[in-house]
Amino acid sequence: TGLGTHGLKALGGNIGVGLEYNSPARTRYGIEAKYWDGAGFTGEPLLSRVEEKVDFDWGTNSPDDLLHDSFSSSFEGFFVVPQTDTYYFGVSSDDDYELIVNDQTLLNASGCCAVEVYGAGMSLQIGQIVPLRFRHIDRGGPAVAKLWMKIGPFSGEILRNNWLRTKPLPL
Asked: Please, are residues 51 and 30 in contact by the beta-carbon 8 Å criterion?
């Protein structure tokens, strides 16, 4: 946000002009990621960054040397609908996960084994900007976090970078 004034001399006296403007945060392709050490989302994250997409198989490692084998991650952003249709959002996660799309909890479970699972379908319109959040907890051992999408009966694919935004604003 900015505020400024400017004065001009005119034949009949001074002319004053005041300007006030708002500079919104610029959106980026990708999704905002935050990482905590340990199984939980308490305190400030140790690491925050923008990821191109959520397509991770860390094995028995973690996203960064700051984190140990047990860590938590949160991916938040917006999905820009590429075409009008019914969409199914899903995850692969080892261990716990929660997926919220358009303020609806689609998936919430604990356990291992990183299989691809999908929530109920949603009818969405082209250009619609849909908030999404995927939270993942790795309790040790293999760590997987993947965010999937499929349209109608077609096979799933990882949510593409050009469909994800960090803020609900156009580029």
From this structure: yes
- CA angle 117-50-23, nearest 5°? 125
pTM score: 0.82
pLDDT in tens, the chain (171 residues): 344 555 566 676 676 665 554 445 678 999 999 999 998 999 999 999 999 999 999 998 889 988 888 999 999 999 999 999 999 999 999 889 999 999 999 999 987 777 889 999 999 999 999 999 999 999 988 899 999 999 988 889 999 999 999 998 765
Residue entry with tokens 């935004």: 165
Cα angle 71, 161, 45 (rounded to 5 degrees) comes to 25
Q: Residue 40, by phi and psi: left (phi above 0), alpha (psi -120 to 50) or beta? A: left
Tell me the two tokens of residue 46.
Answer: 């140790």
SS3 category, 149 = strand
